[in-house]
Amino acid sequence: MGQKERIPVVAIFDVGKTNKKLFLFDEHYKIVFEKSARFLETVDEDGDPCENLESLRLSVFDSLHEIFRKTEYDVKAINFTSYGASFVLIREDGQPLTPLYNYLKEYPKDLKDELHNRYAGLEQFSLDTASPDLGSLNSGLQLYRIKHQKPEIFAETKSALHLPQYLSFLLSGKMYSDKTSIGCHTALWDYHTQDYHQWVKDNGIEEKLAPIVQADEVFAANFPGSTFKIGCGLHDSSSALIPYLLNFHEPFVLISTGTWCISLNPFNHSPLTKVELEQDCLFYLSYKGDPVKASRLFAGHEHDVQTKRIADHFGITTAKFRNMEIDWKLVDELNNKSISNDLDSFANIDLNEFANYTEAYHSLMLHLVKAQVKSTNLIMNEGKITRVFVDGGFSKNSIYMNLLAKEYPEVEVYAASMAQATAVGAALVIHEHWNSLPIPNDLIELRFFRT
Questions:
Q1: What pLDDT, in 10s, does the model give residues 338-359?
Q2: Boundaries of each Carbohydrate kinase FGGY N-terminal domain copy (predicted)?
């Protein structure tokens, strides 16, 4: 008996705020192995909660050892995707200098104001960098804080790496930056000049940022005798868009739904306006470095809060809403009352107004979809878009999908389902370095909703 052929695979680490996952995909992009972990948060020097970097580092190496022991797989390449706004400061010997500060950490107002005022004021600063004023979520400002509050740490920093690139560095030993991480509301990038903003240069921060590489570049692993390639890592929102960009060439909008519902339009490059910025619009950079206009709505969170309120009021469990079908007669009746497009408007409605939980839930969904349409329209680029794809939690919600299709009669609306789009994106971007087959064209399953 000859030895069994080993299956060529790519390993993807998908590091979320809560769940850390590892996937192995075969050449057909089928998941052949997956593993999930959660770590306890630790605290930074101010007592604020933050990611446990050491647990994360050990987990990467432990997981790799586990995979390499599985003789049925031949790991050809490894890539990473993780949340944005996360800097790891590294000293000369490759060790982290500080905790990985949480992007929700309170940011000193005086420091922020001083920076904004020096560069034409908050509004212009935000427009140039396509970054709404989000405190520590503007990760470039984290470096500005270190420079001013901890100059000795700043001086000792050889390189500041965003989390996906730090994970990649653990395996390649090389330091680099990628545009998807630089482009996501970091306040580092000037979208007019397509370069780091002047403040980054003036403050000596550019020297602390590693050279920018292309998203599809790969590097040799830092282990003797290893042949697999290491990708440079991607910001998760940009990674989830990759399967769509590779599969669909007609202009589309993707509404990626979860706790936040993010509408992404890769075909709208018109500069951000003051009005858009005030309504939480921003740009991301795609894996090719092109601007992707985006708007955000906290709709998944609102749905969770309000379904619990309805369930408690009517004495049922939230499971009742899971597969509820749309009742058009009820929709018509509810539409006769005014439905607001403010996300929090349903929270102010007295539930005694509704005869039963079905009616209350339909009303909630009408409000949510109106708010969603208002948010998505900010980036829509009228007349150019031919399709809207919805992925994530709401794509499985028949009421949401039907109401959305009714709101967009001129556009084809699809529920798109794809297991682990973020991880698949990180695998696709380095496809040619590990996969001998062409990219499959049936990666995304679509369901069309007629108006």
A1: 899 999 999 999 999 999 999 9
A2: 10-231
